[in-house]
């Protein structure tokens, strides 16, 4: 595993959390191009607002903090965030518009901007091949580090893709409190990257559901440093690799979901439309009753019928087919053929457990 | 408390459940008129299908079973249900179209029609003022009997309203696994009763949310035996009493929700539209994160902001007002003023607890 050419990483503690790293930095040697995906929550964090404004510019650095969502916290929240970015920009000899920012943690508390600004020089000084420091700085209730790596040989050289993610609650399709940062040294047209990543994000980060709650902070950044130019007939190979990497990070988020004991892949088949297949997958994976049954290794599949009826999908009893691998295992595959048409959709989800409640009863 | 004039009740064990009553009967001396409300789930039970077909006719009896949802159970399910009703009709010297039926319990198992049919004569023989037997026969995971009673003096005599309900999981606005039977000896135009009960159901049984799951079996029947004629200027008094009775039954369902330790009344104010207020109330009351926080007596109100953003309600940080009574108490009142307009909505909900998961992990 290596950091793609053109990037350096750092992670430190700046005092947002009492212990553990809470401030991370991705820095481009020159400038990178970014493709970005944000939460669809109507009350996004200030970090999301600032990054939305900046991501189309050449990107010099991405600042990430954990322990504070920087959302709905203070009337000066937006100004604070811009001030942090502008301080980082000055230290890196660029403009505020070249900086991206992402945050994760509790909603409603003011981000301690002085602590962050004071520690920026130290953060910059620590920049290097610090994969471990960086991934540590983005974790909240995550119990393991979520890193994925791909090395692909093309005609003009080797391309690296290094991806990071954090979970682990408030995860619903269209992202939720998850952050992911994907770095690559490929040189590919930004519009092509945008186009291929849209589909990839839909099949990975937008196909996971922990608790049906959409966070205010979800962010995926894909940054490319444009070092290795590939041929147009090689785009598919890159796409396949990027997709595998994103799906593997997405699965890690679900596997590390708060309190989860089971990982469930739900494959909906035979839906009338793609939209119906998605609705079916999301209704089942959001059902507290279904998720509790899986926790109990209890094949109470009437709850699947009920969840499908709840989103207005009528079924024919003699037709629908439900296949399920052993509920005793940690990894479960559930295939539901609605026998209504030809569309399909897949979602990754987990069980609902007393530990999830315990974590979220105490978290603040 | 008394059974309204013109009705008799019974409850027995017929063998669907190993112990406890599981078969109940409401019988009209003559015929009653019914107003009915059913689940909006697209895969309703056979009992719902048969009652939907029959409820506009004069009603002789309502048969209720617990322990089996009579839903998605067998290709002959509808025929079985009609056979049960037709057997009951014969014993009561009426037609099948004069019978209503409701079921609650597990989805996907065939209703044991022989056990029911065999026990119908015994059930009829037991008919009387058996309030306790009847309410016992409709319970599943309910921990207490849900009965409400009103006695109202009108110019022409005293009107009785006696209401029963059962919960206690799969409860989402638009009803869920809840059944309610309301009997009254009032004589009032059926269309007027239909009109006033629509609003009442919306403000009571359609304003409760336990776990955001809509059941296949929800049913409310309001039956009137037409004994006491009221004057047109007395309709409002009857309406107020019926409303109080329905709200009190609805609250009982939430208070007895599976595993719940807290009862929460959420009042949304200042929404742009009634629809927005409803959406806000339902999103917050469905949030596993919010409900876990309440269980932990944890004022993590960022989760309210997040739940509102999830349903596309953008908020102004300086304006929104959240007021909450003590989280330490068993009854909690939460008022959220969105400061966007003048519409409001109220929902009754509860916390999410490890015990809810335990009950639903094991239930089958």
Features:
homodimer, alpha/beta, 364 residues, 5-stranded mixed β-sheet, 32% helix
**Spatial extent as radius of gyration of chain A:** 21 Å
Which structural class best describes the helix and strand composition of chain A?
alpha/beta
* Basic shape of chain A: globular
Measured by DSSP, the beta-strand proportion of chain A falls in: 25-35%
Oligomer: homodimer
* Helix residue percentage of chain A: 25-40%
Question: Would you tell me the overall average pLDDT of chain A?
Answer: 91
Can you tell me the residue ranges of chain A where pLDDT is under 50 for at least 5 consecutive residues?
172-176
Number of strands of chain A: 13
State the largest interface.
Answer: A-B, 62 and 62 residues
- Ends apart, CA distance between termini of chain A: 35 Å
Largest sheet of chain A: 8 strands, mixed
H/E topology pattern of chain A: EEHEHEHHEEEHEEHEHHHEEEH
Number of helices of chain A: 10
Please outline the helices and strands.
Two copies of one chain form a homodimer.
Chain A lengths: L6 E6 L10 E16 L7 H9 L4 E10 L8 H15 L7 E8 L6 H13 L5 H7 L8 E9 L2 E10 L12 E9 L2 H14 L4 E2 L9 E11 L5 H21 L7 E9 L2 H13 L1 H8 L6 H9 L10 E4 L6 E7 L5 E8 L3 H9 L2
Parallel strand pairs in A: 3-4, 7-9, 8-13, 10-12
Antiparallel strand pairs in A: 1-2, 2-3, 2-9, 5-6, 6-7, 10-13, 11-12
Helix pairs in contact in A: 1-2, 2-3, 5-6, 7-9
């Amino acid at each position: 595993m290596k950091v793609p050419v053109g990037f350096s990483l750092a992670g430190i503690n700046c005092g947002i959390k009492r212990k553990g790293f809470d401030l991370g930095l991705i820095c481009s040697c020159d400038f990178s191009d970014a493709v970005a995906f944000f939460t669809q929550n109507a009350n996004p964090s200030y970090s999301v607002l600032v990054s939305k404004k900046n991501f189309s510019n050449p990107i010099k650095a991405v600042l990430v903090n954990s322990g504070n969502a920087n959302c709905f916290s203070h009337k000066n929240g937006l100004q604070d965030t811009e001030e942090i970015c502008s301080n980082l920009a000055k230290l890196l000899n660029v403009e505020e518009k070249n900086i991206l920012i992402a945050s994760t943690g509790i909603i409603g508390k003011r981000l301690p901007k002085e602590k962050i600004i004071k520690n920026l020089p130290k953060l910059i000084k620590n920049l290097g091949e610090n994969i471990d420091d960086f991934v540590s700085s983005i974790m909240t209730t995550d119990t393991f580090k979520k890193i994925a790596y791909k090395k692909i040989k093309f005609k003009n050289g080797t391309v690296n893709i290094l991806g990071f993610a954090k979970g682990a609650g408030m995860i619903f399709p269209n992202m939720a409190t998850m952050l992911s940062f994907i770095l690559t040294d490929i040189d590919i047209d930004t519009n092509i990257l945008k186009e291929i990543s849209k589909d990839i994000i839909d099949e990975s980060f937008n196909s996971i559901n922990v608790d049906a709650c959409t966070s205010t902070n979800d962010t995926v950044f894909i940054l490319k440093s444009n070092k290795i130019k590939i041929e147009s007939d090689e785009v598919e190979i890159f796409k396949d690799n990027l997709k595998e990497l994103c799906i593997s990070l997405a699965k890690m988020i679900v596997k590390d979901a708060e309190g989860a004991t089971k990982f469930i892949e739900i494959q909906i088949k035979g839906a009338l439309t793609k939209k119906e297949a998605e609705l079916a997958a999301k209704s089942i994976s959001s059902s507290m009753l279904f998720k509790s049954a899986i926790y109990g290794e209890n094949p109470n599949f009437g709850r699947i019928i009920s969840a499908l009826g709840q989103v207005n999908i009528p079924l024919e009893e003699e037709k629908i087919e439900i296949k399920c691998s052993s509920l005793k295992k940690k990894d479960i595959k559930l295939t539901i053929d609605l026998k209504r048409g030809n569309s399909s959709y897949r979602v990754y989800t987990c069980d609902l457990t007393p530990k999830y409640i315990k974590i979220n009863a105490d978290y603040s």
